[in-house]
Structures
1.
Amino acid sequence: MSRTDRGSRVIAAPAETVYRALLDREALESWLPPGGMRGRIERWDPRPGGGFRMVLTYLDPTDSPGKTSGATDVVEVAFAALVPGERVVQRAEFASDDPAYAGTMTMTWDLTRAGAGTTEVTVTATDVPPGIDRAAHEAGIASSLAHLASYLEVTEFKG
């Protein structure tokens, strides 16, 4: 049976600014990795049908073995839909020999204006591979959203 995980956060930035941060390589490398990880994008093509390859490295892999290797998660992401200021839909596949991480997970980033200069960002992950722990995944989504909020507030991102 398919599984859906979610997270949401109101961010003090207009939807257009948040959208640009979802499609900027340097921004993604900075804010997307959840706490305890760092990320590096190896391939980048920000258009519908394009995508990226990200290598996420655990800062301390002792209690969090990676999906691809002992210390890394490698994920291939395709942009399925890009609706400026409103939505980014990604299809993500982990590079792993473990069948528990097989399959394509869809990550939908919905942006809703929440008030003057603020945006509610809702992330919905569908078809989550069974090897991904639900609590850890939802905590990771929340962490990425917190990093996005901090990134936009601290950097005054213009994209």
2.
Amino acid sequence: MARVAVVGAGLGALAAAARLAALGHAVTVLEQAPQVGGKLGWYARNGHGFDTGPSLVTLPQLYRDLFAATGGPLEDAVDLVRLDPAVAYRFADGTRLSVPGDAAAVPAALDAALGAGSGAQWSALMARAAAMWRVTEQPFLRSPLAGAATLARLARSGSDVATVAPWRTLRGLGTAYLRDPRLRTLLDRYATYSGSDPRRAPAVLATVPHVEQAFGSWYVRGGLRRLAQAVAQRAVEHGAVVRTGTTVEQVLVEGGRAAGVRLAGGEVLRADVVVSGADAAALYADLLPASRPTRRVRRDLARSTPSLSGFVLLLALRGRTPGIAHHTVLFPDDYDAEFDAVFGVGRHRGAPQPVADPTVYVSAPDDPATRPDDDSESWFVLVNAPRHDPAGGVDWDAPGLADRYAQQVLGVMARRGLDVRDRVRWCVVRTPADLERDTRSVGGSIYGTSSNGARAAFLRPGNASPVPGLFLVGGSAHPGGGLPLVALSAEIVAGLVGPA
């Protein structure tokens, strides 16, 4: 039996804690916030409740695997509801598209909304994405990152390399398959699932819409925070100790290996294994002492492009919106201008800034747990935003900026047909600076590093650190961000640590 200290209580860290506790290890989870969940947060006030992070579950089988490995069915712990429609899109030209939850019905819906042939174009792209998924799932997503060896696994055949097309961007893949610019815009959106720019992100991100459509989009009744709570409960049932309100200030390294953690206030918790669910950049910059073994990882992090962040409005609304989907996406006229502003490239080279005309994502779950009565709604509104960087980019703490930008976003929504300004009971604004403070993610980068560039995935920190006994889970480590991938990171780490 190993003593395991888990830094953070995000979903990846909790999943690792549950798996390791079920394997017989003595696990202690240390979370700075007063509750578990990390970015899978919850905000409640006056009967209104909001998921403040992810708003859907894809690849639920990964969580079924987690719960099966730790003692019981997922459906016994949470109430999963399949979304139909999965998402509703509104394009800049006024076109509306409702994507069915059943993948078989998607081509017909595309033809009806965008014109004959649109469904066939999308189906051809999804067939390519399914092939990409088959090639990469086991050798990359489900395996530890191992530099050249990982590349060798992926390059085991020339046809596999041609399928993945590592030299091609997501934008380039869309251009090759999709003639309708609205379809290309829809595909571009999936780069943001890893905090990336579709013009630089790899084509293999086309697997994201494939997974979403093939395996469904799911909601957890009562809010996705219940998934984090259920995973934490599973860890506790196997003997894990969860300490909230406990900040880790340093990962201790003695004799060249991880030896435990030092907490705020000076308490030292000895451990044989440390699993960090903290942002990888924060771990290597702030929690670990500089050393020769970690030099390469620090260099790779410095060379990577940080992921985008998000600017959020939590809107407590009077009344109900007829026909509003669980997820609605309002696209701008110029999507490229959004990525230029967020990443400080193109027309905004070197000067990231809030997006003037952003894509707006609205999550409006029809769930009594999120509202005080049946004449109310609780909307989580997100726009892509540059990270908090007072020294070289946007200072989201600048006086008045957050409030001005909140009004700008509400105005954008009104121009695109969702004017709720006269229905707002109250609004809470959450900026990238708030996300950084709440989760210790550097600059509020949602996914740590982006997938911008062909080598980005291989610059992402591996699950086994260069320090023996120290492992990484969560969205900033391999294989990346999002609820499915953080579950895989936990599975990989549990395999690396092994049974007691």
3.
Amino acid sequence: MNCPFGIKPRWERRKDARPQELLAAALDLFVEHGYAATRLEDVARRAGVSKGTLYLYFENKEELFKAVVRESIVPAIGDAEEYIASFEGPSAELLRWVIATWWERIGASKASGISKLLMAEASNFPDLAQFYRDEVISRASAMISSMLERGVARGEFKPMDINVATQVLIAPVLMLMLWKHSVGPCDQRILEPQAYLAQLTDMVLHGLLTTEQGGGGCADTR
């Protein structure tokens, strides 16, 4: 029977929402307990469905994990790639946007705990580590490299070893995400992420900008 005003029955809306509910529950448990210790029955229970229902959407735990990464992290990389490709302003402004937006989209979210999970368990699950390298690490590194190459080509950034500079830029942000999910909750000394990232950006730009672009005095720490 057709429903008035295009409103779906409650059970149908529930069915449509199940994959997202399962992914949200899986992300919570992967971050809380790690990959090895997360059981599919626990994911199903937290999502409020049966284990059999989970198997209707995901073949196994590995496919569920991949779906979590593709849902919570990969889209942010795609959006950043598009923004960098179309951006027409100064490269310093672009770098600020990339760092701030990465934290807003990934670092400040529960998805940031995936980085800690992979570092802890990659050796035990090499296939997952390779998947994460292909779909997250390689793409994110290429994105950062393209931004640095843009700045050098425009004469805004000093010549540099792009591969090395890319890793130097990624490492402090990765450290902040790891801190958040390890000693951060127990550390009585407060490390405020926005202040940390503002200081990081300021220090990076002091090293990157040519003299013509204000490399001798980059005081803006937005």
4.
Amino acid sequence: MKSRLTFFFATLLTAMALAYCKGPAKLSYRNISNFYKPDLQLAGLSYALFNLNDSITNLYVRIPMKGLRYLPDNGAGKSRFRLSYQLFDGFEKGVLIDSASFTGMDSLTGRAIFMDSVPIRALAGNDYVLSIELLDLNAGNNYGAFLSLQKRQIYNVHDFLLLDESGIPLMRNFLYRNEKVRIRSNRLSDSLHFKYFTEKYLPGTPPFGFPDNIAINAADSVFGVKFRDGVTSSGTVPGEGRYLLYGGGSPVMVIHRFYDGFPDIGSTGQMRESLRYISTDAEYREMSQLPPRAAIDEFWIKLTGHSERALSQIRRYYGRVEEANRFFSLSREGWKSDRGMIYMVFGPPNLVYRNTLSEQWTYGEAGNPLSLRFLFNLETLPDNQSEYFLIRSETYRTPWHMAVSNWRR
């Protein structure tokens, strides 16, 4: 893929560790709380994976150059950055399979997007974890991410790649109205099928309540898709909902159509719905009887008692909604997930540790018995998607009500 920038990947700084060797630290020991802090993330930075064959996986990277720092250099502004990756056999063992590091430079104005791909040696028959870091060498800012790479099954999610109409990786799994896309496959001529589900998930229940049961609903419709030379023809998805691509009898890829504008707030109706976490049952029922705009204005002004204070809280709260959508959208809109719920009410956690099956958040200091901790288990849903679900406890009732009351001042 050719970049539109005057850009180059330069010297390979770190040799590929093809022989099995120990990495610098197990991934499960790394505090990844910065992943969930908007001011420490590069907006628009995104990645995608595609298994070219049984031994090579392409890592696609999209870098918004305007987010990097440009410094004077011979009369022109230049950005300098380094992209590094480490491929591990999992979170716990810490066995490093492959690693490399590349430097890049751009001499344009910083308003363009850089996109390219990097081949990674990853053999079929195993699943991996990819640790990626982008370092802005001019600013000293480091942006990290963990990606799960699946190559264990006959059909894996990374055997398929969502493309825009021109064939460029879309770098997301949700679409907008009338957006034309293609699907790339490493199987050149398979005929697969989609199942379409229109039902929408409800917001999560409070952390001291009972979790919602995951219902197994029948598909609203089923339609086939044909790959020719490894790619489908371009097309759109007809309505909001979930589209599950089936291969070998199981879902292998999911495409969402949440609403136009996602992950940003798309309408006043969604603004009203997302107030579920900080409103009482009576307030929420009352809001549902009013037009969305009137319900939102009345709720915030009644809570704060002042229009300027209300505006400040509105910006803060709905900023959290949009951040939750960007950070936590897996099987549903991020703000409706358990992680999104805790993030919206309590804010970014101080400590985050992830392993193969769970993610632990801490608000406070490590080892402090007064710190608040949440454990989210990664579970497989009936449609073969995965989602993090909170281990609920009655001990969360008091801190939850205290945090909600802070929003209601």
